[in-house]
Each structure stands twice: as C-alpha cells, then as structure tokens.
Structure to design on (385 residues):
C-alpha cells in the first residue's frame, strides 16, 4: 500500500481520492507486482486513510531514523564531507489540524516543516512536521542532534557543515556544533551594533560607487561580536552592498548590509559568496518536494498522519531523484525538474496486453522521447532486484 501511494505521488496523483480512480490501472498494478488484467485491484481511498492514521509517535521516530539510514546507504562509499542545508517552509492549513498555528509573517494558519538536504547531491535527509512558528534554539539543537547523531553513528569520521538562514543562528545550536566540532555558517539578522561595526565599509562602498568603480560595489570584512545571549564571541562576516538608487547619497535606502556567523576559516568574500550563498539551492530542493510532489497536501487532522504523509512524499522524491540519476551526466534528463520527468517519461499513454508468458507494453509511435525512455528503461533493467 505504501508503494502504491508513493508511486501515485511520483506520477502526479497526490490526493487520496486518486486511489479510487486508479486502483484498476494496469501500470500501477504491474508496479506493485500484480498482473495488469487478472491481478486484483489495488487499495481504495478509505484503506489509504486508515493506513495514514495508523503509525504512532514511536513508529514515526523509527521511520525518521530509517530515513537517515536510507540517506547513508545511498552512497557507494563514505564521503569525506557533507553539507547539510536546513530550512523551513510554509505549509498552509484549512481546518483544525493539530500543530496548526497562525504565522504573522506568512499571514496564514500553517505548519512550518523543517527540510534538511545534502547540498551537493540533493538527497533528502529529514523532513519534520512542526508548528507554524519560527523554531527556537532548543528545537534547532534537538533536530541537529538527532540527525547528525544518526549520521555520525554510521560515519564517525565524516566532516559535516550545516548551513541555514538566520532562523537557525541560535546560541544553543551554535554552541552544540562547536562542542561536536561541526562546521556551521548561518545568516544573522542585522541590528544597530552590527550596522555601526560596518559603517566604514558602507561609506567606502558608497564612495566607490560614486567614483564609478562599478554599478554595484561590495565590500567585505570580518570582526568579533557577541550578543548578550552568546557565551562566546563568534566571527561575523559582513557584506555591504551599495545599490543604484535615484539619489546618490549614502542613505539607508541605498545600502544593504547582510551578515553571517560562522566558525569556518577563510576569506570573508569566499565564505559569503562561495559557501553561504550556495544554500540558495535548498530552495529548489524544497520546491521539488513541495510543489512538484505536492507535499503540502497535509490535510489530515492528526499530526502523526501528516508526518507519515511527508515521509511517503519523501519516498516519491527518492524515486524521481534516483530515476534522474540513472541518466548520463551529459544528458538533458540529468538536470531536468521532477515535473518535467513526470510529464515526459511517466505520464505516457500506452497499451498493456497480458499474455500467458509475458506482458506487452506498446507506446505510441509518435512519442517524442523514445530515446530517453528506452535509455532509462535499459538502466533500470540493469539494477539488482
């Protein structure tokens, strides 16, 4: 039943009601190991609903641990270093679901699930349903402790870097990373103290723009800083950017200061542009999970049922990610979005004929992606059972 539900999501049918419409579909019946014509029908929507409400908190914790295990097992050899991008996203609700809260920033009642991906491969590590509010230091630390703890249990010597926006620059989380020798680089919200620190850089950037240095002038610097809630000083990287406006004076509307906090070594410019800004790719990974796989269909009343749904959607994510990974590195399909892969390679009309000794699947002769389909089908046939 879980396989059927995950295949439906991967094929673009995320609603439980779709189970009723497609329970006799020959392609889905073959995908779960049944004969396309003589095999029994698949489960219906009420059965799927009962399945989603079945797991309790203990079972879900084991599934989350298994999800990290799947991530580790996906590597042929132990990597020297992994980069974990952590971020949250709005998941709007339209009823009285557990954990739903009003979020003033999004102006909606929502969940705010945390997504963690490995940045270089795009592989999901953890998807955690949580209330619609910004996570505090204790919660961020708890999530990192559990996820990184399971990874270190498999790979004790792997070097880990954690990246996130200012939501995750919590003193408790940074202190825990420092104790465990985990690298981190987080965004940091500006304040009057930080802005005073970078005022010489802002003035220099403004003068450089006036002098015609460039249309957009940036200056970088690093310094020590400790908020009242921090027990140690940490290194701050300041990026001061002068943007083109109608007036040429150095006004607040003409300067933009951004800050990150990190325990990494390196030049300020490289840390900001090459390391921190690369976390923007996490937004595309969340988009693939949330938009292309419709993981925001968390309409169950119970929080446990919605968490289970997120796990099934993550299973569908793995299916499409692995399918895309079978394509050659120079192939168009290697960089295609999930919705493109679904539209071109999965949602294809065909005729299925069940015979005594074999099953024949005939595709249209005018199908425009025959080469790519045949190539990926050949790669799948080589995989172990």
């Amino acid at each position: 039943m879980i396989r059927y539900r995950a295949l439906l999501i991967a094929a673009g049918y995320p609603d439980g009601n779709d189970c009723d419409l497609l329970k006799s579909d020959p392609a889905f019946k073959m995908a779960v190991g049944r004969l396309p014509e003589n095999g029994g029908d698949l489960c219906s929507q009420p059965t799927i609903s009962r399945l989603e409400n079945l797991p309790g908190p203990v079972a879900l914790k084991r599934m989350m641990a298994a999800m990290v295990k799947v991530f580790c097992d996906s590597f042929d050899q132990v990597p020297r270093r992994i980069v974990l991008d952590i971020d949250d996203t709005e998941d709007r609700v339209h009823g009285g679901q557990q954990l739903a809260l009003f979020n003033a920033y999004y102006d909606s009642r929502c969940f705010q699930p945390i997504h963690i991906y490995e940045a270089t491969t795009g592989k999901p590590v953890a998807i955690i349903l949580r209330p619609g509010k910004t996570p505090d230091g204790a919660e961020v630390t708890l999530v990192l402790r559990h996820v990184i703890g399971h990874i270190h249990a498999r790979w004790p010597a792997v070097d880990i870097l954690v990246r996130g926006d200012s939501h995750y620059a919590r003193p408790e989380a940074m202190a825990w990373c420092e104790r465990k020798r985990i690298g981190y680089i987080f965004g940091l919200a500006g304040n009057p103290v930080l802005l005073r620190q970078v005022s010489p850089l802002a003035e220099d950037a403004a003068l450089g723009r006036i002098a015609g240095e460039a249309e957009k002038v940036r200056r970088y610097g690093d310094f020590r800083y400790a908020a009242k809630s921090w027990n140690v000083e940490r290194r701050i990287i300041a990026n001061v950017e002068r943007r083109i406006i109608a007036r040429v004076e150095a006004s607040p509307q003409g300067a933009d200061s951004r800050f990150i906090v990190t325990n990494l070594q390196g030049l300020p410019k490289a840390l900001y542009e090459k390391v921190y800004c690369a976390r923007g790719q996490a937004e595309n990974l969340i988009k693939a999970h949330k938009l292309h796989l419709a993981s925001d269909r968390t309409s169950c009343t119970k929080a446990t049922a919605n968490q289970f749904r997120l796990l099934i959607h993550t299973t569908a994510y793995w299916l499409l990610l692995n399918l895309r990974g079978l394509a050659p590195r120079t192939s168009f399909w290697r960089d295609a979005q999930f919705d493109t892969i679904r539209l071109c390679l999965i949602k294809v009309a065909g005729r299925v004929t069940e015979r005594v000794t074999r099953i024949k699947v005939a595709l249209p002769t005018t199908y425009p992606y025959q080469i790519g389909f045949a190539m990926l089908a050949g790669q799948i046939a080589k995989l172990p059972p």
About this structure: The longest helix spans residues 303-325. Confidence is low (pLDDT under 50) at residues 239-253.
